[in-house]
Design goal:
The structure is a homodimer of 415-residue chains. Chain A has two domains: 193 residues, Rossmann fold; 147 residues, Rossmann fold (3-Layer(aba) Sandwich). The first copy, chain A, is 34% helix and 18% strand. Chain A contains 14 helices and 13 strands. A seven-stranded mixed sheet of chain A has the order 3-2-1-4-5-10-11, sandwiched between helices. The first copy, chain A, has a four-stranded parallel sheet with strand order 7-8-6-9, with helices on both faces. Chain A has a two-stranded antiparallel sheet with strand order 12-13. In chain A, strand 1, helix 1 and strand 2 form a beta-alpha-beta unit. Chain A is elongated. At the A-B interface, helix 6, strand 9, helix 11, strand 12 and strand 13 of A face helix 6, strand 9, helix 11, strand 12 and strand 13 of B.
């Protein structure tokens, strides 16, 4: 395919992860080293930075500082939750994006995000094709939710999973230290897909995991839940429960809403959830009468870079690098995904596959029901086999004063 | 002093820490290797195990498994919050303890805990002296609260501080990822002393820490707090706040109680606090109108062994070892404390000092007011200089399947 010379933009969007910057670094480093790519711009706060003409010149950053992006949580370029309208309804934003692309001679656009970001990516790609502007557009996935369609797993999931499994093991030890009864309800992120909550089951491998695990893939019943907890509590005097924030009853009503009916809504129409652990803890306290503690892993589960998976970091970098390599070769309109291979010894090997953006955008991949036990309160070995290779390895992250040394970018604005 | 031959008991009490087992291992390993100590018993759930005659024979544990205690959070022998009455009021428990001591020929008693545990230790010591039973009794401190009198710092504090500082840095990155306003209120443990909340200021060293830090050493005023947050939010569009769970107004009323008046009370008369972050988040949301998130570090801050300080682990071990060494030499009725020295190059060196139990029991050491800034919303460099050496070093903790490999004790009951 013909060589295309021009600048590139990398943007980050949606909720951050511990390793989204490792993907961005994969894009930035590879693009800076490419002969085809003349300039590398980072968009401030995703597509907003393009619309507002706030682009950082990544070529002016120190190489060592850029490399620290491998170990730096959250989106270093800033994120947004801005939703593009369909261009058939209102093409104002698209015209503006085209204007900026022309201004900076942008011929490559890499967008690093989840479902909504792939949708944004797809819309821009379609618009550029419709107006005949030659530009190669690639999606670089990230999500702790692991819910992107068509890829074996998503960059960002494994590190969050490792945080969840490790913290569950530690809490398991802590929560049974006293000679008195204790129920612990741990709330884990995941609105529609229970992948991250499922990771709590990895702690069960050593017998130090939650007794009960509830995902949004299965309808949640408060009475059944109470019976489950009572049965275990009466036997052991302790019970640890992991629940996904998105669990709902058979009518689709979120259990989180049982406690708080009027949660605020974000720009994508997603309810801002929270307080589920404390609601369920209070409910169980009333039913069982023992000491109950509600725990939320909150932001820590998605920004805990100190316990990131080294496998996740290297795969995240690889996905960013592949996006640039394939785009330079002529690919466009694709998301970089992973496929799982085994080597000759049956060991896990992760390969790259490309998927059409249109297929990925706004499609959610849920946990297979056959990976959830018959009772709907735990995971099967199939899940463990799937997840375990992903969380391996501890990164050799740099420290200063015994604390993380995160990347500090100069963020020099392009003119 | 005369050599005293006999068995020893080690018990753990109060809230656990990431490294309390490193102290216990210091006791157990040193006692097992001692010529004077004939048997090493672990009391199940602290003094309750003595009263109930549930003692584990530590000599039957595998040496490798015992060594894993260095990296295993929570109290491996189990804990309790049982409070001994004064023997002048009711000596039933004391008679029972003496009976058990005689039954197993116990001549050494090591108690691993905080303020209340040192009180227990002191009471037992005084009783044994009063009845003329020769027995050497030593307190081995632990507390994430760092509030024990007379010692430079307490085992367990540094690891919790490292968790707090690291997590604050990660949250700092996460909480400012969007191009929209955000206030984050982080609740940190500490009822009367703000040591652990002060550790949030370590994150400020790299410019990635909370904007505001409130300790219980200073009266908290909701209007002043609101002004502080508004000032920072208006300037930066973001504000991160760290608050100690024990902050209170000038009348001594806990701010946590503004939201929840009737919190339950534990056996020592301590209120079971919680929900402060969510109360303050809701309050600020009402005042500022922006997105606000309340975060509780909950149990994770005291059981996060995966991010323990290697310095803390080695000092914890050292304190347990010193307790045995000094007891064998003839010391009794003391708590092992730390004193800080500098070597010839001005580097931090931690030495052992012994303190009378009676002086330590039930005395709380608070953060010096001169280490808190004039505004009462941040820490001075004196605190940083104090805390920084304590959090250094990453332990080489063993993993299995990419997850922690904690000690699994056989816990064979002594006959």
């Amino acid at each position: 395919m013909s060589q295309l010379k021009g600048a590139c933009i990398i943007g980050q969007s949606g909720g951050p992860t511990s390793v989204i910057n490792a993907s961005a670094y994969g894009v930035i480093r590879t693009a800076l080293d490419s002969d085809c790519i003349t300039k590398v711009y980072g968009a401030a706060n995703g597509i907003r930075g393009v619309l507002d003409d706030v682009l950082y010149d990544m070529g002016q950053e120190d190489a060592e500082e850029l490399e620290l992006l491998l170990y730096t949580p959250s989106s270093a370029l800033g994120s947004c939750r801005y939703k593009l309208k369909d261009s058939s309804v209102d093409d104002t934003d698209y015209k503006r994006i085209l204007e900026i692309f022309k201004k900076y001679d942008v011929r490559y656009f890499f967008y690093n995000g989840g479902n909504d970001s792939m949708d944004t990516c797809n819309k821009i790609s379609k618009y550029m094709q419709s107006v005949g502007y030659e530009c190669r557009i690639m999606g670089v996935p990230k999500t702790i939710d692991n819910d992107l369609w068509g890829t074996d797993h998503c960059p960002g999931y494994a590190s969050a999973a490792k945080y969840v499994a490790t913290s569950c093991m530690e809490i398991y030890r802590d929560a049974r230290v006293y000679d008195t009864g204790m129920v612990c309800v741990i709330e884990i992120m995941g609105r529609h897909a229970g992948w991250l909550t499922a990771a709590a089951s990895l702690a069960c491998l050593s017998g130090e995991g939650p007794d009960l695990i509830y995902l949004p893939e299965v309808d949640f019943d408060l009475d059944k839940f109470t019976d489950d907890v009572k049965r275990i509590y009466e036997k052991y005097g302790k019970c640890i429960v992991a629940v996904s924030e998105g669990i709902h009853d058979k009518n689709g009503t979120l259990i989180a809403e049982y406690g708080a009916d009027n949660a605020p809504v974000d720009a994508f129409g997603h309810k801002q959830l929270g307080g589920l652990a404390s609601y369920l803890a209070g409910y169980i306290k009333g039913q069982v009468g023992c000491k109950v503690r509600g725990i939320e892993f909150s932001l820590m589960q998605r920004c805990g870079a100190h316990i990131a998976s080294a496998t996740d970091i290297s795969e995240s970098f690889m996905s960013g690098k592949a996006a640039v390599d394939y785009a330079v070769e002529g690919m466009t309109d694709k998301m970089v995904g992973f496929e799982r291979h085994g080597d000759e010894f049956g060991n896990y090997v992760c390969g790259i596959k490309l998927m059409d953006l249109v297929d990925v955008a706004n499609t959610e991949k849920k946990v297979p029901l056959e990976w959830i036990n018959a009772e709907g309160n735990g995971m099967t070995d199939e899940y463990i086999d799937y997840a375990l290779p992903l969380i391996q390895g501890q990164p050799d992250r740099p420290l200063r004063n015994g604390l993380p040394r995160f990347a500090k970018l100069k963020k020099i604005q392009a003119k």
